[in-house]
Amino acid sequence: MSAAVSPIEQMVVVLARDLADGELGAAGAAALVPMAAIALARELHAPNLTVGGEMFFNPEPGRLYPSMLDDRALGRCEAAETFVELFGHSHHGLDFFFHSGLQHDVYGNINLHHVGGTLHAPKMRGPGAANLSYCHTSSRYYICPTVHTARNFVETVDFITIPGHLSGPAAKRDAGLVNEGPRLVVTPRAVMEFDKTTLRMQLKSVHGGNTPKEVQRHTGFDLAIRGEVPQTRPPTEEELRVLRERIDISGALRA
Amino acid sequence: MEGQAKPTRRSKVTGLQDAARLARGALEGRPELCLGGLFKQSRPVALVRALLATGADGLHVYSSPGAGYDVDLMIAAGAVAQVFIPGVTLENRLCPNFRRAVEAGQVTAHALDALTVVGGLMASAHGVPFQPIDALRGSDVLKHNPLLQEIDCPFSGRRIHAVGPIRPRVTFLHAQEADRWGNLRHLSTMVYADQLMARASDMVIASVDRIVPDEVVLDDPSRVTVPSHYVDAVVEVPYGAHPTASFPNYAMDEEHIDAYADLGDAARTGDSTGLDAYITRHLTEPKNQSDYIEAVGGTGYFAVLEAEARNE
Fold first, then answer.
1. Nearest residue of A to residue B85 by CA position?
2. Residue A1 confidence (pLDDT) above 50
3. Where are chain B's structural domains?
4. What is the C-alpha R_g of chain A?
5. Which residues of chain B does A132 touch, with a Cβ-Cβ cutoff of 8 Å?
6. Distance of alpha carbon A205 from its chain centroid, rounded?
7. Which residue of B has its CA nearest to A122?
8. Residue A201: which domain range?
9. Is the dihedral of CA B117, B120, B126, B131 positive or negative?
């Protein structure tokens, strides 16, 4: 593997490692990175992982597309469903799901509705989100935006579209959020996790080429850096080879 | 029985302009319009354009939980008062006219989620007064969602949500094929919420890539996705979903949508000349779908989208 590992490839590899064989999960709206992660996990260690819950089962895209929600990407799949079945999956939940937004805060809450102003008098109106339920009914989810700046990682979001850990354990319990919620936050710079007691986000590892100080500078809240922060384990030869040769044939993750 | 003619069954095949007039009339009483497909796939865009050409306005727009270009175009044309769609985006970028109009207070965009919309359509389709939902927690959407009520589950006693029937006055769908009676055949992999909407709505008008002989339907009835019973009118419109896709026949026109979005963003930041020209060229000037096809680039242009759909 001569070409350098891209930050997006590093994201995909981190996410793929956390998906287990036999699980059921789906990619969510911004699907490029999650779909690649799922495909990599299925190739390497999770052949019985089922992609389902978003109206198609086990797609075989052939290559990655910017939007993985169309028939070019999903037309070759094992079965198709409709929004009626999505209603059922949404209640039964999945093992894992993926989310990202305009803003992410220290508790992993995600905003897709508005930045500044109010919902009906917004300074900037975002797209909203199609399905909110998987953040609550799925066992866990991952936050994986493809940018990481002090503008999209803020102390408190302006609107909670997708609840993370709300304002901590008590608020989460009061709201009836009984599952794990966001487990990892994987960005082009670093991996973050949540403190088990406070449920606040903290730096877990930084990708090659980044320093903890830089990551902190690009984050709008305190990442609770104490002592040495390890480097994210880079892709192995095998991970990179399978990713580039069997999944990302068009190089979308290096674009 | 000699000399007595067999009564003839009524064909539902309609012209595009007649279909738009039918919809316009129905929407005057209750302006709730619902669009089939999802994001850039199988959206009934030619029907939308024809409806806009009738001067429809004040519309309340519903859809499957994700929409983009068509709703944005309707807003650009000044036809929309309220949006009841959970996700409004071009996926790779925001919807410029949606954003501009909501930020300016000209259009109300309700905070909703997929289960509310799907559940409301289910209640309507199934003929029940509400659909329970037990999967929504912790989101600010729940504080603002105008269609949800909290109720006590009569069995568990838990606080859950209920959504009343969503009954669109008119639903536009796009399918790949239909017979003259209005039996629809979606040949795309996914059928989205189209079947549900057809059963939930007062009036259903479908555009299709082609009308097929009766035998095509009769030889393979399990392939019919929406029975004609639910369909009021069907229109054969070549490239009727453009610039969205009608798989497996043609792919979405990403470049067209991107160029439109650039014009929309320019309008949002003060220069609306490009967007005005776009609307004139694609909405005002074409008298029919042939004119529209020419305005977009002619049949040679569409051959590229057909090849793209075949993964060539």
1. A130
2. no
3. 16-111+167-249
4. 18
5. 113-115, 136, 139, 141
6. 16
7. B103
8. 7-254
9. positive
